[in-house]
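Worked problem 6 (solution included).
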Amino acid sequence: MPALALAEALVAAQDDIEPVLVGASRGIEAEILPSRPFRYHLLPAEPIHRQSWWKNVRWPLVLGRLLKSGARVLREEQPVLAIGTGGYAAGPILFQALRRRIPVVLQEQNAYPGITTRRLVKYARQIHLGFPEARVHLKPGKDTEVCQYGNPIVPPPTSRPDRAKAKEKLDIRGDSPVVFVMGGSQGARSINAAVSSAIDGGLLEGIHLLWSTGPGNWESLKQYAASPKRLVRPFWDPIAEAYAAADVTVARAGAMTTAELCAWGLPSILVPLPTAAGGHQSRNAEAMARSGASIHLPDSLLSAGTLAEAVAGLADDQSRLSAMARAAEGRGHPKAAENIARHVLKSTL
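Solution. The predicted structure is:
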């Protein structure tokens, strides 16, 4: 998604630019890119397993195929610039771009930089940080420009939905707090389990619940949509009305999720995915909590009780909610994609 946002912003800034996207054949990009207007290549990349290290036994073979495929892409496309936004294919193809003296720009989304960013930052022309906290973990080269424009997201509408109108459109009546629960496009099993248990135990009475279960969890959870105070969907698209209506959001702590929450100025309870590579979601949640924008609730401590307690604590404290909203908005960069694209074009091409 960061790569797509940047591609769109680059074309908007300069119409003779032709972005070509490169991803992994087994990544989510294989599902998304065919429906987008950009040419693309999918490489035979696979994840590096940090916990189950023995699963990396095939990596020498995978790396050989990946380097060969990446070299072919660079020969065919002859790019004037390579922008890395993470993903399995990023490291090998950026390494080959550097060997061919193609300028490289990095966009690092997380509070703790990924291995590709840490290894290649000293050779990059620019690095664009999504979290300012990432800076202390990097050793850029003497000619590397470090920029902090935030993460490239689809920004909130220029004319944002009015909160009252958004609630009316979602048929939310009364003044009860509105809590939006989302676990990402696939849902989050532990968050869903905590929410359903909290409902069963009567722990979420007195709130309006907007809940995105994820398509794979919908059949087992759709019965919870029976209450007029609960709007439950497999996936929230478009999401603008839910963001506009919510007082607080419960979510994972992915970089793009946190960027959207900040762009909308939304207080949040963040439950990081414990298996995220390098623990980066936990680092993101810690950074958000330190800034006052979020409550960090580790997945290991998540239960119906702890979730309900965190929700109730915010719902009953309007001054804290307001302070968290200001802190989130202070970290927001709704025009990140536009600003990064303009800076890249001005400074590297």
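Discussion: The chain is about 40% helix and 15% strand.
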